[in-house]
Amino acid sequence: MRMMRIDEALRAGRYPNCSTLAAEIEVVPKTIQRDIEFMRDQMGLPIAYDAARRGYYYTEPVENLPNVKISEAELMALLVAQKALEQYRGTTFEEPLKFAFEKLLSRMPDMVEVSLESVRQAVSFRPFAPSSKTDMKRFAAVSKAVLESRELTFNYRKLADDQPMRRRVQPYTLACINNQWYVIGHDIDRGAKRTFAIPRMSQVRVTARRFERPADFSLEKHLGGSFGVFTAEGDHRIRIAFDPWATRLVNERFWHHSQVIEKAADGSSVLELRLASFEEIERWILSWGAHAEVLEPLELRGRVAAAGRAIARRNGGSAGR
Description:
Layout: H1 2-11, H2 18-25, H3 29-41, E1 47-50, E2 55-58, H4 72-86, H5 94-106, H6 110-118, H7 133-148, E3 150-156, E4 165-177, E5 180-187, E6 192-197, E7 201-210, H8 219-222, E8 236-242, H9 244-250, E9 260-263, E10 269-275, H10 279-286, E11 292-296, H11 298-319
Antiparallel strand pairs: 1-2, 3-4, 3-7, 4-5, 5-6, 8-10, 8-11, 9-10
Helix pairs in contact: 2-3, 4-5, 10-11
């Protein structure tokens, strides 16, 4: 605990300075300088510098280091950051994230570290980072290409295809959407932006060819009309009615930036969205079963009805077996 070591040196009347303390604690002098300024300005300790002795000292007796106030919200934010870091263990992001978090904690008073440990069970995350060794190797290659602006080549199998196809891509960004990692960039052979699910990539190779990421690229703009990751050029006004049971769940989350929820006196509601395509919203509506009804457009209503009939046929046919 650096501040405790600094306090001990000051109490002992050793007139320590930043260089001597840095050598003793094994940090750089600037870190000690920041700690002393924090102890003096934020903790209110009577620290002064003696030019003749070239060191710091207490101008009056100090019995104990005072507690530094930190709000519950600030403590919880640190705890969330610590837990989030655990999800990237084994990936290419583990070391830089760990270093950044430790650097942040080094600027905080010692009591924060103790508090974090004592309440570490208060927050948990379900893993969404790559888990297998193959996934981590692939993830590391893709993230390297994104960070260094290098072209990628890889085999990619779309869900509807039997065989993978070779792709050449300028990767703009990594995105974790609905607990799945994607890379979004410019598909060179197709001359358009495309989104690729990292688990469906294979034989990934980072090339030596560099590219310049477009200054006007925005992930928010790119996925603006999407309910997830699927992009299209359409513009559809979608209205979905939910019964009171589903309404309570729908109201608990933010689903899309365009959403408008109209609540009725009986507890039901209507969710309105503006989306570019039907693919992802159709599957989402079906997940609600009989608790949701598509009001418009008619095309989406027909697609959901047809999918529902197909589900009923498949399940009805297997029920008697």
